[in-house]
From TrEMBL:
Residues 1-17 form the signal peptide. This is Receptor L-domain domain-containing protein. The chain crosses the membrane at residues 471-490. The gene is Cnig_chr_V.g19377. It comes from the Eukaryota.
Length: 523
């Protein structure tokens, strides 16, 4: 039993070319033992020689391999072909490894010696897989197409890359390799590039396309930046749809052998995308992304060559982010930084009960000076204070320009003291309904009334208090000033307590007596 475990250890070490990153393969071997050998690891002895070197089974006694030759089937889906040491097709066949179990794939890779007119294919496999073609020695018009497999963790051609057999093998009998887009496949470890160099050494130069480490492929549209955060290379196109609502995507500091497609996304800033190095044979597509900065999109077209970028605008509105402009829209708790630092907002701004807790998003809006559209706050209970101290104008094509409705917890609104509400159509410019806790400061209230605001279900006592308190404060200040002026003017004639004179000391100026010249005595 100890010798068996040593053999298993040797297989796993040779498979990974060292003592690092063996955990996944070891776990896979354990799973095969449990499911196929009932816990008996001795069956692994069949796949190694007396020295512990992995090898195929060769011609076993009692095995009829006649079905492995002169194959006419187009697709070899049956797992019986996993026992063949040689596969020969008459008109070109495809071995689809996706149709086989993990053990059948393992058995196929270590058994296989030769291929003729056969293509081995595995794409989009999600089950942990290691392809160890330990004894493979000859490939006559064959291809290994191993692309876009998120769970392929290893690939080796042991017999071809070790020993002198490769030196005697004609170039045309070497395997064609297409190995791209396998996220977890690591062929180099720091300065150690033995695995990738071995693959390049054994492959046919007619087709020898081998990926780098951590090369990603995205079969479906991307939902968030975390999906590509660990990618160093990308194989294939990257699709971003309406499911991607990040205002500023994560930095794309990688090379992509494919094209970008952005279709109705929530992306606003394109600077992170400009750091990518695309190799697109067709055109990058930007379709109706209404939040995108127009000036950054033009910059991207210049950088990626304008004839290689196809833009379909959402509505023709230009948004110049470098000049502090942003696109309005639906304010959501889940979308961050969309309005951060924006001074001019183009388009309507809408907050509803579906926006969630948007207290942080309202804080981002506080830098706005102008809204070229309407501002609607409806049925949201998370907002208690709306502070837009720099907002000087709300200009909308449709009235009303400002709507505050059913905001049950909203208590304060702060605008610029000289805010203006304008709209081109008929109707009230400001509408406030069903917001019982709302308190309007006098200056804001006066600007709303000047704009012909409709204040339904508004607390009249709060309204009156807001105006009267202002008049009272101004009158009190005037009286205090008059009293101080009178007291200062009469300070010399009035008798005040001593502490007042200590604070305001007085000095009395008196005229000096002029000395009269003495008269001379008469003699």
């Amino acid at each position: 039993m100890l010798k068996t475990y040593i053999i298993l250890f040797i297989i796993s070490q040779l498979a990974f070319g060292g003592y690092q990153d063996n955990t996944e393969f070891d776990e896979k071997i354990k799973e095969i033992i449990r499911s196929r050998a009932n816990g008996d690891v001795s069956f692994l002895r069949r796949f190694v020689n007396a020295d512990g070197i992995p090898q195929g089974l060769g011609n076993r006694d009692g095995f009829n391999d006649s079905y492995c030759y002169k194959i006419t089937e187009r697709l070899l889906a049956h797992s019986k072909y996993a026992d063949c040491t040689k596969l020969e097709s008459l008109n070109g066949s495809v071995v689809d490894l996706n149709l086989w179990t993990g053990f059948d794939i393992f058995k196929f890779s270590v058994n296989l010696l030769e291929l003729k007119n056969v293509k081995v294919e595995m794409t989009y496999r999600t089950e942990l897989t290691y392809l160890y073609f330990s004894a493979f020695r000859k490939c006559d018009n064959c291809l290994f197409n191993l692309t876009r497999n998120p769970a392929l963790v290893g690939l080796r051609f042991w017999n071809l890359s070790h020993g002198g057999y490769l030196d005697t093998l004609s170039h045309e009998y070497r395997p064609k390799l297409l190995v791209r887009g396998n996220l977890r496949l690591k062929l180099s470890q720091g300065e150690d590039r033995r695995k990738i160099e071995d693959l390049k050494k054994v492959c046919n130069k007619e087709l020898c396309e081998i990926q780098n480490n951590e090369e990603c492929h995205f079969r479906h549209s991307i939902k968030n930046s975390d999906e590509y955060s660990n990618c160093r290379h990308v194989y294939g196109d990257m699709h971003f749809t309406s499911r991607f609502q990040e205002s500023q995507p994560g930095t794309m500091d990688f090379r992509i052998d494919g094209c970008f497609l952005f279709n109705r996304t929530g992306i606003q800033f394109l600077r992170p995308i400009m750091r990518a190095f695309p190799n697109c044979s067709r055109s990058h597509l930007f379709i109706k992304n209404k939040y995108m900065c127009t000036d950054q999109l033009l910059e991207l077209k210049d950088r990626w060559k304008s004839n290689n970028v196809n833009v379909t605008p959402a509505d023709g509105m230009d948004v110049k982010c470098y000049q502090g402009e942003c696109r309005g829209g639906f304010v959501s708790e889940n979308v961050k930084d969309r309005y951060s630092g924006c001074e001019v907002i183009r388009g309507n701004v809408l907050v509803t009960d579906q926006s969630g807790n948007v207290s942080e998003r309202i804080r981002d809006l506080s830098y706005a000076h102008i809204i070229n559209g309407s501002l609607h706050l409806i049925n949201n209970t998370s907002i208690k204070k709306l502070a837009l101290p720099f907002l000087k104008e709300i200009y909308s094509t449709q009235c009303p320009a400002l709507v505050i409705q059913n905001m049950s917890n909203l208590t304060d609104i702060i605008f610029h003291s000289h805010i203006e509400f304008n709209c081109n159509s008929t109707g009230p410019k400001v509408l406030i309904k069903n917001s019982p806790k709302l308190y309007l400061y006098h200056q804001t209230l006066r600007q709303m009334r000047k704009a012909g605001a409709i204040l339904e279900d508004f607390d009249s006592e709060t309204d009156t208090y807001s105006e009267n308190s202002t008049f009272y404060l101004v009158g009190l200040c005037v009286l205090i000033v008059i009293f101080v002026e009178i007291a200062w003017a009469l300070r010399k004639n009035l008798l005040f307590p001593n502490w007042i004179y200590r604070i305001f000391p007085m000095s009395i100026k008196r005229k000096l007596k002029q000395k009269q010249p003495r008269k001379k005595k008469e003699e």
